[in-house]
Amino acid sequence: KNDRAGQLQALFPPFLETQMAAQLISTSEGQTMVLTLSNPEHRNALGPEMYAAGVEALNAAETNPDIRSVILTGEGSVFSAGGNLQRLQNNRQKPPEFQAQSIEGLHSWIEAIRTFPKPVIAAVEGPAAGAGFSLALACDLIVSAVNSVFVMAYSSIALSPDGGGSWSLSRAMPRQLATELLMCGERIGAERLHQMGVVGRLSEPGHALAEALAWAARLNARAPNALASVKELLNEADGSPLNAHLARERDHFVKNLHHANGGIGIGAFLSKETPKYI
What we know:
Strand content: 5-15%
Helix content: 40-55%
Shape: globular
Distance between the termini: 57 Å
Order of helices and strands: HEEHEHHEEHEEHHEHEHHHH
Strand order of the largest sheet: 1-2-3-4-6-9
């Protein structure tokens, strides 16, 4: 039990309130926007400021043709420890609606990531815990350092998941494993998630962002409209009858065939040239 307590404390230290607000830092690397969770004193714990900044950043990137992909990463050697437990403890003294509003902010960001028409890649170093794990799962692709650990430790502090964690895990793995992770708060390593296909690329520690940038560059060279269609079709596939989904595939295919990039791609293939999409 003492070992278990020590593991939890390492992932969820007893945060102290400071005047330094959590930040989401936005930078650009070529055609990729990099969003960095920056709250190093609290192991990149998440908060309302980050949620709002995340939605705002994606809204700006969606209308910017120079941005073709987004990477979400954490500052330093930690992706995110999830929620700030001291803030959550303080919120228990406030009306329930206060915490509900905070979670709505997180969920708005999760929905913004899922509906964003460009690829979003999570670059994970170190722990991705609680809502940090949920945030990574919301991304289209995950690159992780080989020694990273992922944990849904909500039940270890008598809480239940948020950020779409239970939704994502129930679709990414067998129900029994999702139940184990959520009910027991067990850690799962990057290598096992890679074997299951949840983590798409592994990197050496300290190189997750570099690997994600290389992956993003390959995606950036592909037709943005085709990638947007793939993401929309995948989002709509869950629970959709086959005939309805076939109709959506037909409509997307026809639209993309008659897009300028359709002509560019087919022409380049036939002439054995490298396409340059608009």
